[in-house]
Amino acid sequence: MTTQPELSEAQIAVHWREEGYYPPTPKFVGQANASEPAIIERFGEVNFPECFKEYADLLSWDSYWHTTLDTSDPPFWKWFVGGRLNACYNCVDRHLESSRNKAALIWVPEPEAAPTQVITYQELCRRINEFAALLQGFCGVRTGDRVTFHLPMVPELPVAMLACARLGAIHSEVFGGFSGAACGGRIADSGSNVLVTMDSYYRNGELVDHKVKADEAVEAARALGHEVEKVLVWRRHPGEYASEAPMVAGRDFFVDEVLREYRGKLVEPVSMPAEAPLFLMYTSGTTGRPKGCQHSTGGYLAYVAGTSKYYQDIHPEDTYWCAADIGWITGHSYIVYGPLALGTTSVMYEGVPTYPDAGRVWRIAERLGVNIFHTAPTTIRMLRKLGPDEPSKYGYHFKHMTTVGEPIEPEVWRWYYDVVGKGEAAIVDTWWQTETGGFLGSTLPALQPMKPGSCGPGVLGVYPVIYDEDGAVIEAGSERAGNICIRNPWPGIFQTIWGQPERFVQIYYAKYCRDRRSRDWRDWPYFAGDGAVQAADGYFRILGRVDDVINVAGHRLGTKELESAALTVSEVAEAAAVPVMDDVRGRAVEMYVALKPGFAPDVSLEDKVSAAIVHEIGKIARPKNVWLVADMPKTRSGKIMRRVIAGISNFTDVGDVSTLANPEIVDDIRHRVQSEK
Ligand code: PRX
């Protein structure tokens, strides 16, 4: 059951006024992939699910499917049943004939003076084949096996992903910034025998030791009863090892050394059923255990190719840059699979947008001739704060820009439009999730005008609705918020939570399912976990999570994960994580911690709690503040009232506290916290 939240991001969301529309420029419309309104009709509900043939036909199939959508086992939807294809072949091999020497990936490393790598489709194909041969020959990886990567933003990451896809093996990339412990948990959950990592990578001008985390990951997996057989270590500078961590004999291998045996080797792409899993992407949920979202081969690839074409307006001749990390779903779908399936040039970079200065991004865009740009509100806010005039110093021209991952404030949107886009670029604000594979809500850039702060209507073939807690529809234009759901399945939807099918049904479908025995998709709306409002024009404004998930700088953190991490500190008796508004990161985490009897609060304990969270999850989870409190506000049954704590942290109404078991604590905490903020 999805419980009624005690507090949610949506509840602390700022309520914006309705904004005016911005039309795209005629120049943009003239060249857009989707410029005829007929496309909207073609994807109308009467044509569902067959409309998605249009997306699937962007791919090359080894055998065509016989059933577009199989609903016989809800909500385990099956798309393009009977079809067979290989995702790597679709992203690489099939482009060779026409585009062998064209750049597939352009990689911009740190430091800035380091040479940019241009990887042609031919070169990418060679690297993938060799690494696939190594995985197969040296590690014994077979179709259906899981392989975990803990890789930073280096070309070896897409190479490894596509090598797995070539073999029909399931990759599971763990964001490089996550801790070794977090990686180990994901290795054990997926049952991967192989971990692919790198000795080091650059960030903010420093070479960060990364291999140390692999050792922690293997230990953490072992503690969960899972043994990693091989650790493949790429070297950031081949031949030079840049890590303090010793290589473990018989377990750890330098990829560049082992690869020598596989030079020039070719591996046939394995023809996979459309429904075969392509990858796992772990994300945070309402319990401490991350969920391995399992994405399909055919449905997923068709969906990211179609949405890349129509929503990001990618043409093969574009130079497209999604400045996200491939360690997140955005990078999987919209750096690697979508753009490469369309045969375009996809830029990826190492480091951060603000180092060595807030002009880096625009310099790269100018130098490479980037014409489509994709980033997150948190980056936009940061660049606006640190270099509000930087974009005007560079001679790039974007025809199109995307924002993703969090709500974007209208004034930030306007800076993105006026200053970054120079008033020329169409913007799409794309609302979606790790689970959904690709976009759910967005304007079609040439056909539907932009409205700052709103993502737009449901995307082609996706029909969202807002329900109240009882399942009644909240009408557009009512100005009432509710839970945004999707009424229908779409090809990019994840297939299940790896190894936890019951949890999959419970979390995403149980809340609004009308009849558990029904095989009609109309009875199984997808519960997204976001609060939203729909304006009279049908555009949705996403308010934030309604569950126990906090979206920090576009990254999902589970309150339970944060609290369990705090509880690893032996002095801590109780912990509660709450979201607070943050100027740059959208939301930040504040931790409230009560100590066990006999321990006095001091700064070192605050630091210890922060360190424990960084150790268990990673630096992205470091709390903005740790408040050591004498006690937590609790109900009479002993439940911590996060709503009250969040109200204090955000200087908003804490609601009725009269029924608490310890109402007096509220003023104590308020005094303490608000006087120090
Ligand atoms: O709350 C929504 C927010 O990010 C959540 C999904 O996070 P994740 O699975 O990490 O995927 C992020 C990249 C797709 C959603 O439940 N979110 C995502 N996009 C938007 C958004 N909130 C507002 N506007 C968006 N465009």
TrEMBL record:
Gene3D superfamilies: 3.30.300.30, N-terminal domain of ligase-like
Every AMP-dependent synthetase/ligase domain range: 93-494
UniProt-listed PROSITE patterns: AMP_BINDING (PS00455)
Gene: acs_1
Span of domain AMP-binding enzyme C-terminal: 561-639
The Acetyl-coenzyme A synthetase N-terminal domain, residue ranges: 50-91
Record-level Gene Ontology MF annotations: ligase activity
Keywords, alphabetical: Acetylation, ATP-binding, Ligase, Nucleotide-binding
EC number(s) given by UniProt: 6.2.1.1
Species in which this protein is naturally found: Kribbella sancticallisti
InterPro entries named among the record's database cross-references: Ac_CoA_lig (IPR011904), ACAS_N (IPR032387), AMP-bd_C (IPR025110), AMP-bd_C_sf (IPR045851), AMP-binding_CS (IPR020845), AMP-dep_synth/lig_dom (IPR000873), ANL_N_sf (IPR042099)
Name of the protein: Acetate--CoA ligase
Pfam families referenced in this protein's UniProt entry, alphabetically: ACAS_N, AMP-binding, AMP-binding_C
Family, as annotated: Belongs to the ATP-dependent AMP-binding enzyme family.
Superkingdom in the source lineage: Bacteria
